[in-house]
Amino acid sequence: MNLILLGAPGAGKGTQAEKICEKLSIPAISTGNMLREAMANGTEMGLKAKSFIDAGKLVPDEVVIGIIRERLQAADCKNGFILDGFPRTIPQAEALDEMGVRIDRVIDIEVSNEKIAARLSGRRVCLKCGATYHVEYKAPKTEGVCDACGDTLVQRKDDMPETVLDRLKTYHEQTEPLKDYYAAKGILRVVEGQEAVADTTARTMQALED
Ligand code: ADP
Ligand code: ZN
Questions:
Q1: Paired residues of 79 in beta bridges
Q2: Which ligand 1 atom is nearest residue 52's CA?
Q3: How far is 147 from 175, CA to CA, in rounded Å?
Q4: Considering every ligand atom, which ligand is closest to the CA of 127?
Q5: Cis amide linkage into residue 177, ω under 30° from 0
Q6: Closest C-alpha among 182, 42, 23 to residue 102
Q7: Residue 195 counted as an annotated binding residue
Q8: How far, in Å, is the centroid of ligand 1 from the Cα of 104?
Q9: Which of 15, 86, 142, 165 is the most buried (most CB within 10 A)?
Q10: Is residue 5 in contact with ligand 1, taking CB distance under 6 Å?
Q11: Going by C-beta distance under 8 Å and a sequence separation of 6 or more, which residues neighbour residue 137?
Q12: Can you tell me the distance from the alpha carbon of 21 to that of 40, in angstroms, rounded to the nearest whole number?
């Protein structure tokens, strides 16, 4: 199954991507994580992406399209994949179509703007393995330390309140039109994000079937 997860920053796309990855044994592909990894490694692409990411803006289409084109050719994508954070613009969606990539389902996770602000301000991430935590809702066993790999957790620069507003604006302007794009193809399903992750997961799994 080839899936796309849509939703505002902090709607919980990454968490659901991990759950679906476990259940269906298909890779979760996060452009955000790939870009952050490139930034941490100081690659040319990482340096180019940094100014956009830190400002809450989108990285140019040709950069992320290039990343995805290459990633989808890997052997582990043969039986399907979950795209988390791609596409984020209409040209990115059109690029997928032009690559001949068939998408089976697009799950849109809806969460109110107020909840999103609270979720992002408490979010902590591991730059080494990409795991995400929340100081209140999903605390690591030891404060500030990644359960999965033991690395130090950090707050993303773009999770600071002043940048969050820019990211929400970017989302509404550039990414939300994708809902209509995929609804017109009959493959969009809307899931209301719930308080408990397990409840959202149950609804997401249901949406994959109908
Ligand atoms: P979130 O979904 O919480 O906003 P991500 O980790 O998916 O976070 O993305 C972080 C940042 O990386 C985005 O704000 C954007 O700058 C950049 N980015 C990720 N995916 C894309 C994409 N498909 N197109 C353009 N920029 C992207
Ligand atoms: Zn880690």
A1: none
A2: 16
A3: 32
A4: 2
A5: no
A6: 182
A7: yes
A8: 22
A9: 86
A10: no
A11: 119, 122
A12: 24
